[in-house]
Design a protein that fits this description.
The protein is an all-alpha fold. Helices cover 66% and strands 0% of the residues. It has 2 domains: 43 residues, no CATH class; 45 residues. The two termini are 34 Å apart.
Length: 89
């Protein structure tokens, strides 16, 4: 019974997140063409806003790439490293 309740709450949570994630009709009309339908609010107002969005996007992509890189091949070769003791158990 408890497992079914967890699934129900998870399902309701996903529905609520999905419904609030997309832009409403009013916000869609205020957005520029590139961000229309995916975000709320008035959208970028000047060219500096686009620069900020570009920098944040670049940082996010670089962070994602490096996290995958170090997750797949961490590079520690020391036999005393904590990773070795975890993997050997």
């Amino acid at each position: 019974m408890r497992n079914k309740i967890n699934y129900l709450f998870t399902f309701i949570g996903i529905l609520l997140i999905h419904a609030s994630a997309w832009a409403c009709e009013v916000c869609e009309k205020q957005q520029p063409k590139i961000t229309r339908g995916i975000t709320h609010g008035a959208g970028p107002q000047s060219n500096w806003d686009w620069v900020i969005i570009g920098v944040i996007t670049a940082i996010t992509i670089a962070t994602f790439i490096y996290s995958l890189k170090y997750l797949i091949r961490p590079g520690e070769k020391d036999s005393n490293h904590i990773k070795v003791s975890i993997l050997n158990n």
